[in-house]
């Protein structure tokens, strides 16, 4: 019965085949990514460096000054346990920091693409507005100016005056 349930989980049709994983805890890559970013962000703070320095200083002082019977990492063995702990911390920190950097690079790529698309839209809008301004200038140039209308009205008045002077009897 358990075997049938396991097979049915692997043959589910609601997720792509490449995304199916026999280990359900690794199916959510976003959770791992968020954890790695939080870890990298925490390791990059001054408080982490101060805390790690204080931890190492206390470790060294205790294992150097305390009586040999109560030392858990004696100075005579060159602080092997401390070296092992710091090496383990570095071996986990490096890949998590790289994972966080990769996620940031992905976000930067998406942001750059969105900025490029926005700039392209702005350029298209600017070109459209420039064409509209040129069209308006051409339309305004064809419109009668104030001086032209005055001149035409004067000419009409003069023509009416001439006609009036020709036919005073009528």
Summarize it.
The protein has helices at residues 2-10, 29-43, 46-65, 80-142, 146-166. It is an all-alpha fold and 170 residues long.
Question: What does this entry look like structurally?
Answer:
By secondary structure, this protein is mainly alpha-helical. It is built from 5 helices and no strands. The chain is rod-shaped.
Q: Output the structural class.
A: mainly alpha
Say how many strands there are.
0
| First and last CA, distance | 121 Å
What radius of gyration results from the CA coordinates?
41 Å
Strand residue percentage: under 5%
Mean pLDDT: 83
> Judging from the principal axes of the Cα atoms, what is the shape?
rod-shaped
Q: How many alpha or pi helices?
A: 5
Low-pLDDT segments, ≥5 res: none
The helix-strand sequence is HHHHH
Largest sheet at a glance? none
Determine the fraction of residues in helical runs and give it as a percent range.
Answer: over 70%
Set down the secondary structure blueprint:
Elements: H1 2-10, H2 29-43, H3 46-65, H4 80-142, H5 146-166
Helix pairs in contact: 2-4
Main attributes?
170 residues, 5 helices
């Amino acid at each position: 019965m358990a075997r049938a349930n396991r097979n049915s989980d692997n043959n589910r049709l609601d997720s792509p085949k490449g995304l199916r994983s026999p280990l359900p805890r690794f199916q959510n890559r976003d959770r791992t990514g968020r954890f790695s970013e939080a870890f990298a962000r925490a390791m990059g703070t001054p408080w982490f460096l101060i805390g790690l320095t204080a931890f190492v200083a206390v470790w060294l002082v205790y294992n150097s000054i305390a009586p040999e019977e109560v030392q858990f990492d004696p100075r005579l063995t060159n602080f092997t346990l401390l070296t092992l702990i710091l090496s383990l911390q570095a071996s986990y920190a490096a890949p998590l920091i790289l994972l966080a950097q990769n996620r940031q690079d992905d976000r930067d790529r998406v942001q750059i693409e969105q900025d490029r698309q926005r700039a392209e839209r702005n350029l298209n809008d600017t070109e459209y507005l420039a064409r509209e301004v040129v069209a308006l200038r051409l339309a305004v140039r064809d419109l009668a100016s104030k001086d032209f209308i005055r001149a035409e009205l004067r000419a009409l008045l003069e023509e009416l005056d001439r006609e009036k002077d020709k036919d005073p009897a009528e």
